[in-house]
Amino acid sequence: MTRTEGLRERRRRQTHREIQEAALRLAGERGFAKVTVEMISAEAGVSTRTFFNYFPSKEAAVIAMPPMPPDEDVTAFAAAGPADPGDVLLDLIALLLRDMARHPPERGALHAMFALGQEHPAVLAAMLAGFEGFQRQLAVTVAARTGEQPHDEMPRLIASLAMAAIRTGMENFTSGEDDDPVPYVERAVTTLRTLLGR
Amino acid sequence: MTRTEGLRERRRRQTHREIQEAALRLAGERGFAKVTVEMISAEAGVSTRTFFNYFPSKEAAVIAMPPMPPDEDVTAFAAAGPADPGDVLLDLIALLLRDMARHPPERGALHAMFALGQEHPAVLAAMLAGFEGFQRQLAVTVAARTGEQPHDEMPRLIASLAMAAIRTGMENFTSGEDDDPVPYVERAVTTLRTLLGR
């Protein structure tokens, strides 16, 4: 247990992962259309009430979305204060990479999610809406650091660019061979730095 | 009729727009769930066969997605050849802005699309999948210019960043007051230039 992540947070991540694995396993076995929230809850050994504390729908349960980094890390990022926008972007990506190194996503789960998204518009909608929501949270985080509003252009663009690097890296990871996602994202960040001229 | 856009292309844009307007009008009057492809086709005065030449579904018909710029402009962009990646990005955005100035999207249609997307996951999925598809075409265009492959990192990142600027501008246009979308995108591009350090 690190200082930046308490026991409760670890349990939350664990339950989140167990429900997701149950949902993906059932979707693989029976076909996603036949799977219900009740079946997923029973398979994961939780009540449907607990299920809905974690996910709004069965579609959401098959989406492997990175949670935001721990509050302490986000607070430290914000406390660093205004800086050159390019530096804020690179700091934000570094924050996300540190969290990814601690909790690497699993290639199989990402693969299954993308495959379900291609077959089921509701899964695709949940997936892309998840990316949008994550990106909005990133804009809030940037704005907390720079003293801007989350809907101002610079925080939104910094959040978009960070997401573009993360997504490019994750897509390469999903179709790649190395089991560690971090180097894939690092390579995308190197490309982004070339674009930023730094 | 300009040299870069023939009569056939103008007719295509016109029919596209008429079907879309019919779909949005019917969705507003009767509720999207009750609208069928047959109803939209009748309202627009086209056969369902023509409908399906333009849109794969009723969800797709309410999505106001920019078409790619005319082939001649894309060819000229590609013929300019390899350049500094930041310059390729700014050239790509300039290409899209020229097309937007010629065929400005209508605020009402964008508003209606975003509202339908919030209510109907299938519309949201079609909308976000439309953005993804457009972005993929941009990566192909960039790769044709730089001699890379469309799935290489740089073309994908350049396409993502161009989309980020366009989407930020369009979101501000949709909630803004000026009837011309171009200045909204130009402001987002100015912010992006700051991030790129140029």
Automatic annotation (TrEMBL), chains A, B:
A Pfam family hit: TetR_N
Domain of life: Bacteria
UniProt GO molecular function: DNA-binding transcription factor activity; transcription cis-regulatory region binding
InterPro entries: DNA-bd_HTH_TetR-type_CS, Homeodomain-like_sf, HTH-type_TetR-like_transc_reg, HTH_TetR, MftR_C
Keywords for this protein: DNA-binding, Transcription, Transcription regulation
HTH tetR-type domain mapped to chain residues: 13-73
DNA-binding region(s) from the entry: 36-55
Name of this chain's protein: HTH tetR-type domain-containing protein
Organism in which the protein naturally occurs: Micromonospora haikouensis
Lineage of producing organism: Bacteria, Bacillati, Actinomycetota, Actinomycetes, Micromonosporales
